[in-house]
Amino acid sequence: MIISDAYLIVTSPGRNFVTLKIVTESGVYGIGDATLNGRELSVVAYLEEHVLPTLIGRDASRIEDIWHYLYRGAYWRRGPVTMTAIAAVDVALWDIKAKVAGMPLYQLLGGKSRDRVMVYGHATGRDIEACLEEVARHVDEGYKAVRVQAGVPGIASIYGVAKKEGEPYEPADSDLPAEHVWSTSKYLNHVPKLFAAVRERFGDDLHVLHDVHHRLTPIEAARLGKEVEPYHLFWLEDCVPAENQEAFGLIRQHTTTPLAVGEVFNSLYDAKALIENQWIDYIRATLTHAGGITHVRRIADLAGLYHVRTGFHGPTDLSPVCLGAAIHFDTWVPNFGIQEYMPHTSATDEVFPHDYRFEDGHFIVGEKPGHGVDIDEQLAKQYPYKRASLPVNRLEDGTLWHW
Ligand SMILES: O=C(O)[C@H](O)[C@@H](O)[C@H](O)[C@H](O)CO
Ligand SMILES: [Mg+2]
Fold first, then answer.
1. Of the CATH numbers 3.40.50.300, 3.40.30.10, 3.20.20.120, 3.10.105.10, which one belongs to the domain with range 108-367?
2. Each residue of 249-277: b (16+ CB within 10 Å) or e?
3. Is 80 exceeded by the pLDDT of residue 118?
4. What is the CATH number of domain 3-104?
5. Would you list the domain boundaries of the chain?
6. Beta-bridge mates of residue 174
7. 159 catalytic, yes or no?
8. What is the mean pLDDT of the segment spanning 179-187?
9. What pLDDT is attached to residue 105?
């Protein structure tokens, strides 16, 4: 199990993905996702210059030791670039270990806690009517849970709402950052109407979710949480930026709407107070950005003690490698909540052959040894890297805002 080679594949079948391949002397290899949306090449440089040369000659079976070598050994701990680089190595090593054991990854973690993994899809529309049509399409396709985001009258364009009806939105949609203009008051006045319309048309059984994308202050988030209580959301996501974890304490005092946060977290320490104080209900830290299986398992275990469940980030800017590994994790983790799902383009699915499958609003884990996702390196070469940026958000007076 000695590591003989480790290299990166950067490909852009519709959008950029960075993939790490670790090869052992026996020929068994593992794959990890190293995609940090909009900052892809910074992770490439970190891995190529500082990490990959140190892996050659190491025993691939010593996952825990290698994790700490890269975390403690770097001296500069945490941060999205470092933790994405560590995650890519970690997931590739778990893939190797499971392949060598001849088992699907979920078996190494402790076996199945469930037969299938509930996902939520994304319904977006320029207005409430268009959005309801998209919710209906998802319900027809079998989804049991849908994230609902609509355009707001008076706001020209909102991140998270697709530009074309029926198509998913692309998180990094321009070469240099596009600028959006934001109005909190218009948004707050509109969202309760959206969810009233959703419940009116689809009844009580459908799980509905909403992402605020960090744009509110704590007291505004508290108001929104209270006003949507009659529509019993599955969760309200990222209602405020989470650097100040105590802000969630304030929101919590005001509303019973369940709260989800963590897609930008990269460490247990980003979520420690949130979890220990029971200020949140779902933790969204993901394998690719929070140190891989080895670290996210620690986050999930801590969360479990406090009734906090997982709800992994799963947009198109995480590769099928991340999604495949996440489905194994979701199949095992005792305190599973839900898995986000934005279908990849068919070009992406061809570059990353995989054995997970979507059925009736759920993912079914594959049974191949490892995490079940591979990369077609020849095909990947046909799609060169293309710089793409996430947008920024400004208030109507020009102030740069959270998004
Ligand atoms: O809930 C989500 O899926 C998101 O908020 C994404 O759209 C992120 O913004 C994107 O992944 C950033 O790269
Ligand atoms: Mg989000």
1. 3.20.20.120
2. ebbbeebebbbbbbbbbbbbebbebbbee
3. yes
4. 3.30.390.10
5. 3-104, 108-367
6. 389
7. yes
8. 96
9. 98
Closest atom, ligand 1, to C-alpha of 169 = 7
* Distance between Cα 339 and ligand 2 center (Å): 12
Q: Is the CB of 171 under 6 A from ligand 1?
A: yes
Is 366 close to ligand 1, i.e. is its CB under 6 Å away? no
Tens of pLDDT, residue by residue over 231-240, are: 999 999 999 9
Give nearest CA residue, ligand 1 atom 13: 37
CA distance 33 to 318: 8
Type of residue at 330: D
Catalytic hit among 122, 190, 210, 213: 213
7 DSSP assignment:
E
Q: What are the start-end ranges of the H helices in 19-77?
A: 40-46, 52-55, 63-71
- The reported pLDDT for the residue numbered 164 is 80
Among protein residues, the one whose CA lies closest to atom 5 of ligand 1: 213
- pLDDT category at 162 given cuts 50, 70, 90 is confident
Task: Fill in the DSSP letter of residue 268.
Answer: G
Is the shortest distance between the CB of 317 and ligand 1 below 6 Å?
yes
Question: Which ligand has the nearest atom to the CA of 238?
Answer: 2
> Which residue's entry shows tokens 């090593």?
93
- Token duo for residue 344: 């990849």
**C-alpha to C-alpha distance for 61 and 1, rounded to whole angstroms:** 6
Among residues 71, 143, 159, 356, the one annotated as catalytic is: 159
Atom 3, ligand 1: residue with shortest CA distance: 315
Is the CB–ligand 1 distance for residue 37 below 6 Å? yes
Is 120 an active-site residue?
no
Supply 318's token pair.
């995480």
pLDDT in tens, 125-147: 999 999 999 999 999 999 999 99
User: Ligand 1 in contact with 263 (CB < 6 A)?
Assistant: yes
Distance 156 CA to ligand 1 centre (A): 20
Cα separation of 316 and 314, whole Å?
7
- Residue 166 pLDDT more than 80? no
Name the β-bridge partners of 193. none
